[in-house]
Write a structure and sequence with these properties.
About 25% of the residues lie in helices and about 15% in strands. It contains three helices and three strands; from the N terminus they run αββαβα. The chain has a single domain, classed as 2-Layer Sandwich (GMP Synthetase, Chain A, domain 3), CATH 3.30.300.130. It has a three-stranded mixed sheet, with helices on one face. The longest helix has 12 residues. The N and C termini lie far apart (about 50 Å). The chain is globular, with a radius of gyration of 14 Å. Pfam families: FeS_assembly_P. This is SUF system Fe-S cluster assembly protein.
């Protein structure tokens, strides 16, 4: 019998996974850094993540979205993952959580 998991619970698991992924140049996870704009989970447990990078010329522009996709897809209840990159709106330091700003000595 397949495990039944609600989309909100799965969303929480996805956020926990995203918090294990770090920008290699900044010692803060990509979620707290504000690189994740949105996470959508449908009733079929298919996930769409809209994310950005600190700049379009970021050295991990190829590898970071792939790492996000692979790690989220590794969750048992996730059927499929699509990662969409966007630079609109552009990332700014205002996207960072208070926790990230504190970690980086910006508060």
């Amino acid at each position: 019998m397949a495990e039944i998991i609600n989309t909100e619970e799965l969303g929480d698991k996805i956020v926990r996974v995203l918090k294990t992924i770090y920008d290699p140049e900044i010692p803060v996870d990509i979620y707290e850094l504000g690189l994740i704009y949105d996470v959508f989970v449908n009733e079929d447990n298919e996930v769409k993540i809209i994310m950005t990078l600190t700049s379009p010329n970021c050295p991990v522009a190829e590898s970071l979205p792939q790492e996000v996709q692979e790690k989220v897809k590794s969750l048992d209840s996730v059927k499929d993952v699509e990662v969409e990159m966007t630079f609109d709106p552009a990332w700014t330091k205002d996207n960072m959580s208070e926790e990230a700003k504190l970690e980086l000595g910006m508060l």
